[in-house]
């Protein structure tokens, strides 16, 4: 008699395919920057929360870092505060900073913590202000060769991982809003979430930095081609930076900083795809662009 072919067999094959990756990432810290469409689409938000909880239960230590550009813009509009951008960064007056702080820590973070905690008492929200986790000084971008004052926008000067490490040791999932406080003037600053995620990944000695975005990855020859670069080294990425679209620059600069400061891999993945985090970490093909340090070849088949 022939053995019955069970319809659930493909599920077993998928789990077996994930086994080498589960072994490789066991006990490792993964910093995930949450942003883009994944932040505003209800189904994508729910799938993101499921992915992060799955990583936790699979033995990884996820840390989530988030911004909230669309939500901040919407709230500023409601309050009649004009959104102005210079050098790709939001000009942040003290009044605007109050809104940024309220939206990030009081709206976006609370919603994300709530989604994660539907699966158990796991997530704990915090900002970069808490326990001096992120310290910053005022950032003055260069425009036409001269520094420009764009208000309460911060440049990271120091990371203190103690509070995050304590939460991880307690089996929690830290959810960090990209807000920092200055030691110099005691002001609160808005910090680019891509930059904050990369700095935290390096300071935590994370295995992986994952940046969710609204594109498939880093394109080889955009807009002439939509072929995605699956893997490149830090030096290869550095050469490409001057040619990148402005929206990709902080993400790829963050990836470069991470792998040059001890993070094993940095990945840019499409947050518009449900369960993109699991597809990237636990499948043979992967779906995004992976950046690796110059001296470390990538695992065979990983992407």
Fill in the keyword field for this structure.
9 helices, cytoplasm, ATP-binding, 303 residues, alpha/beta, two-stranded antiparallel ribbon, eight-stranded mixed beta sheet
Report on the structure:
With 303 residues, this protein is α/β, with parallel strands linked by helices. Strands 5-10-2-1-13-15-16-14 form an eight-stranded mixed β-sheet, with helices on both faces. It has a two-stranded antiparallel sheet with strand order 3-4. A two-stranded antiparallel ribbon has the order 6-9. A hairpin with a 2-residue loop joins strand 3 and strand 4. It is globular. The N and C termini lie far apart (42 Å). The model has no long low-confidence stretch (mean pLDDT 88).
Spatial order of strands in the largest sheet: 5-10-2-1-13-15-16-14
Percent helix, as a range, is: 25-40%
**Share of β-strand residues:** 15-25%
Largest sheet: 8 strands, mixed
Give the overall pLDDT as a whole number.
88
User: Structural class, from secondary structure content?
Assistant: alpha/beta
Uncertain runs are none
SS elements, strand count:
16
Outline type: globular
Quaternary structure annotation: single chain
How many whole angstroms does the radius of gyration measure?
20 Å
């Amino acid at each position: 008699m022939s053995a019955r072919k069970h319809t659930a067999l493909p599920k077993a094959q998928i789990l077996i395919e994930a086994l080498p990756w589960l072994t490789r990432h066991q006990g490792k810290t993964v910093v995930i920057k949450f942003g883009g469409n994944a932040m505003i689409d209800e189904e994508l938000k729910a799938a993101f929360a499921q992915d992060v909880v799955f990583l936790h239960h699979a033995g990884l230590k996820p840390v989530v870092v988030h911004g909230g550009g669309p939500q901040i813009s919407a709230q500023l509009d409601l309050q009649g505060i004009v959104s102005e951008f210079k050098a790709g960064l939001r000009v942040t007056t003290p009044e605007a900073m109050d809104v940024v702080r309220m939206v990030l820590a009081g709206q976006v973070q609370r919603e994300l913590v709530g989604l994660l905690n539907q699966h158990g008492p796991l997530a704990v929200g915090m900002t970069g202000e808490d326990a001096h986790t992120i310290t910053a000084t005022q950032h003055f971008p260069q425009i036409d060769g001269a520094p420009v004052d764009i208000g309460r926008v911060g440049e990271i000067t120091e990371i203190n991982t103690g509070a995050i490490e304590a939460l991880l040791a307690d089996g929690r999932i830290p959810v960090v809003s990209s807000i920092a406080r200055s030691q110099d003037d005691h002001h609160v600053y808005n910090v680019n979430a891509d930059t904050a995620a990369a700095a935290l990944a390096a300071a935590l000695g994370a295995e992986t930095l994952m940046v969710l975005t609204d594109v498939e990855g880093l394109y080889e020859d955009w807009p002439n081609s939509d072929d995605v670069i699956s893997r490149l080294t830090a030096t290869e990425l550095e050469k490409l930076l001057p040619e990148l679209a402005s929206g990709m620059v902080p993400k790829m600069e963050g990836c470069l900083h991470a792998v040059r400061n001890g993070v094993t891999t940095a990945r840019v993945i499409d947050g518009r795809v449900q369960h993109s985090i699991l597809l990237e970490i636990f499948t043979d093909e992967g779906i995004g662009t992976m950046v690796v340090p110059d001296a470390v070849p990538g695992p065979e088949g990983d992407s």
